[in-house]
Amino acid sequence: MKMSINRTKKTLLLLPAALSLLAGCKVGPNYKPPQTAVPDAWHQQLTQGLAAGQANLQTWWQGLNDPTLNDLIAQAGQDNLDVKTAASRIRQARAQLGIATGRYYPQVDATGFYLRERPSENGIPSLNDADPANLHNIGLGAAWEPDVFGRISRSVESSRAALEANIENYRDVLVILYSDVAINYIEVRALQARIQYTIDNIDLQRKTLKLTQDRFEAELVPELDVQQALFNLANTESTLPDLRSLQTQAINRLGVLLGQSPGLLSERLLQPAELPLVPADIPAGLPAELLRQRPDIRSAERTLAAQTARIGVATADLYPTFSLSGTFALEAQQIGEVGRWDSRTWGFGPSFRWNIFDGNRIRSNIQFEEALAEEAMMQYQQAVLLALEEVENAMVAYKEEQVKLEALQRSVTASQKSVELVNDLYLNGLTNFQNVLDTQRFLSQQQDKLAASRGLTVQNLVRIYRSLGGGWNPEQDVQQ
After folding, report:
1. What residues contact residue 103 under an 8 Å CB cut-off, 6+ apart?
2. Is the pTM of this model over 0.85?
3. β-strand 107-117 against 321-332: which pairing, if any?
4. 20 to 30 A Cα–Cα from 302, which one of 78, 197, 312, 452?
């Protein structure tokens, strides 16, 4: 009898070790990063005039040499609510990883109770002692599920990949935020230039109106010239409210991006300043670098990894689940006897559960997780294609806007010279007033287009950096 008990003890002691050896078996597919084909280089016409090599993507805005923009971006990184929300999601995912990892270890609970009970006099004969009795109990209970078929390890694998995907989402928020701040700031400066051009043209047209009024009073020109000058001036003045409204909207948008109430930046930004300068060379990088740099692609890849691991979690339900549990307690009727060794009670042993029939629910769940993995793969491939499209579109827009800007600069120079010449001809009676109106109106339009094109050129440069995934440091850990 004693030998039998010893064998039982040895068997129970060896059982956890045996289950631990089996725990190296993980069912379900092992994740392999997708192999995505991307071009070796951008089209030559896209990169003509752009410097080759790795761009300074981490702090691209510093290349624009605008201290105000640098300050706004730094403040946005600290106070923007989308950034704080993304950081909160990282903390959530990190906690979920902690929950999944905790399943590797036994669960130990402290237990205890006090019970005073009076058996029924009409109950089981052996319990017919109807006198009330006390029972005191204090002890520990433990349970452990060895990860025999990888259910826990696949769950941890999925949670870790989900955490990494949330980190990439956080970085993607930074990429979008910094570019949005720069685009709206540039919009403010471009609108200020447009407003100033409009004010200058209003002054010019007021002088022309005064000239025609004087010449009309001297009976040198008809009243038609005066009325046309009034019309031209009023038309130009009518454009100012729209420009100022757009300026206010851009400033308000900047305030929200910085986590502030709209309008708080008005005093700081209403003072006109020059547009940020475009660097002489714009590094374009290589297409393959997108896969390493763009956070949205990195996030899609990590999401695919997380979903692949969930297939293993679902597959583990096809196999038995083992567990080892045990209790140890001190139990006595008298409180003073609880601490005695002969009051001990204990029990431990293994158990298992294996689903035999479930109406095909487990296999259907596996198919569901596999379909989600296929969807995640499609989303990853779509993210790569959209990234390539975004980069090429941004490069084309930047290059073509440069061509447009150069043409507008020539047009404005010619228009300014035309206004001077037509004014001299009009004063000498060698041309009619309609030519004066046409040249002044054309000058106003071209100057407005020039200011807008200057702003759009810088904005398109920002969009290149955004499309390349600039605005975060791959070597910097995200600790939230």
Report:
1. 145, 147, 152, 155, 156
2. yes
3. unpaired
4. 78
